[in-house]
């Protein structure tokens, strides 16, 4: 079934019941305190459950004037109802001594109030019905939620694998719903059950025992202590015992145990009648205990957590819904006038932002361009170029705005020839990376009028650079010049700091240089964080991976582009000059604290952050560095540092791959293939592989790692990515 | 004649003494153990109120309330009119509700003067969203018959009373 069907059901159920669920869960949190409050009262006497009924009754009879009944509640407290000096008295006793321990726990007004609100909203029967329905909706919400998680995670078997974080609400909604799924399901099911019981849809049969009044004996008259049954029954099994009302032999003991009811002759101790409680009663008793957590502090906490999660899930759920793109796409050109048609398949809306960026730039350059969702695929009479930009949902399925695309392709054929390009957005942390983009591409290729302009391009983790690379390639193929502007989604950067240039190392032949910086105020970056530099006001920021060599020395490794505004700006900085830049935390690319073995893979200037990580490896953990460059000459910038690190034991192994050597071109992925045993071992033992450099290198390296994983470990690479054993920072 | 005078005097003194003393001596309290046995009905737990009724059929006082949530008290209409209307303090005489088929044993106290003089003990009952019984069962405070079982007409199956030990 389509994801959107599950999703809309999930949402619809939530809309119908959220007010009631909110009331029920908030009161539920309060009511979760009650069983804990009761349980900690000092009426529990340890070891008492092992006493026999005979022992307890004779103690009570000796110590109290007239006992009418005794009750053992779910907390294990023994309550006596007695008549003393003509007055009714209820109190807890110590079963060993008969000592009065205190008056019955009075229900606190807050609990009474919450119970009434929780059960019936103070609306008596109609209120009970509403709450019962809300429980049922909660059950349906939980069920649809389970399916949605399974779809998102890529199957039920991956239900509990790590969640890919897209945004706060999405991540925490999934995370907490999984954690509290069990209590929520229990609350919902038992809630429904108790409602059905209340409305007599589940009938609760009553036990009625028949006593043969014609054959009651007063002889042999035994003392309580000699009743066989009373000697046998342990206090722990007891729920309730009612004394005979009078001394007539027609009055007898009524005993309710956990599973049965007995009538016992008050003189002879013989069983007059006995019956098991019907299954329904036992289930009802369980439903009550499971719903109210009476008698169990642990379960009360679990249920309390479930109740606590519900308001949170309601809020984050609605946030997710309202954050979804309301497909208000603006088009200046009508669909039949546009030569360029961009179609978007999106789930959370970020993909749309990228597409809008492209549309804006095309329009700016006076290309007629039309932007729509993939579900809006239609006949486009002037279309020459089709661009499909799509995310993938869960197990390679279509995202929400592209569910109908495949059918529409077959239905709405174009009358003119056109070229197309496909860009897949996704995360390599999902097992079916960009699967839907590949599927859509394949489907398009089958059309008579369509020709692929280029292969599918993929964008990992919303990498702007990867999208830009695609855009450059795409526009060059058509001799256009389209430059994208980075959408402002880089959040939580710190306020700008001032950095002083300590030293510049340059390798002119490679057009690369290293800048040593000292932080003068504010930010305390960690190796792997990014330095955001804006060369001139109004210009786009550039990001550089930072390496932290020491508290006073940071390093960035830069490749100078002939017309690069930023790289040239940085290059002209003299020693001692000050630079204003922001540190952007990049937690996903910090050196793993708990990894015993770590492999670092970099090409060219991608080595920058690794220099810091190596310098900081004072614990001398096993660290391997693979580095790719054009010629051995490229190494001269880093050579001293690396040799020193090896001597100091901070770097275990260093291997290089040079791609412009005369006899043989070697790339880093070749080294991986050769050293696969090391990679297998590191992955299996929970070590980490960090990759920094170009997108092209990342793609090749991941490809190599993927085949090692599936061929030698029998697991998909995404398994390790989800366990954060693969960390990447590529551009 | 003198004899007659003496007799008159003795009679006056005797009457004065009797009347006067009776004002100071508290009548004896008698207490009965009472069992309320519920029917096998379906629905919520029943609220039952036990009241003392004078020979003219008026409420005298509340002896016991089987039901601990005041929210439902007004459902016992006649009693509520009396008890609420006269601002009676009923804090000490409430106990937990019981459900269908269950029984409750309580102690009820009376003045000995209320025995054998036309007083009755009335049991009225109500269940949420179900019928209200203004007189579910009524037991005359008659020492000769009080031990006899009295059947109820609503949620109460029967009432039994015996003198307390």
Write the layout of secondary structure elements.
The complex is a heterodimer of chains A (731) and B (165).
Chain A: H1 3-39, H2 53-63, E1 66-72, E2 78-84, E3 87-93, E4 100-102, H3 109-120, H4 124-153, H5 168-179, H6 181-198, H7 228-232, E5 238-242, E6 252-257, E7 260-265, E8 271-276, H8 279-292, H9 297-323, E9 340-345, H10 350-364, E10 369-373, E11 385-390, H11 405-411, E12 418-426, H12 435-445, E13 450-452, E14 457-460, H13 464-477, E15 497-507, E16 512-519, E17 530-533, E18 542-545, E19 547-550, E20 553-559, H14 565-571, E21 578-584, E22 597-603, H15 608-615, E23 622-629, H16 639-648, E24 653-658, H17 668-674, H18 676-684, E25 688-693, H19 695-713, H20 717-722, E26 726-730
Chain B: H1 2-24, E1 29-38, E2 47-53, E3 59-66, H2 77-85, E4 94-95, E5 103-111, E6 120-126, E7 132-140, E8 150-151, E9 156-163
Parallel strand pairs in B: 3-4
Antiparallel strand pairs in B: 1-5, 1-9, 2-3, 2-6, 6-7, 8-9
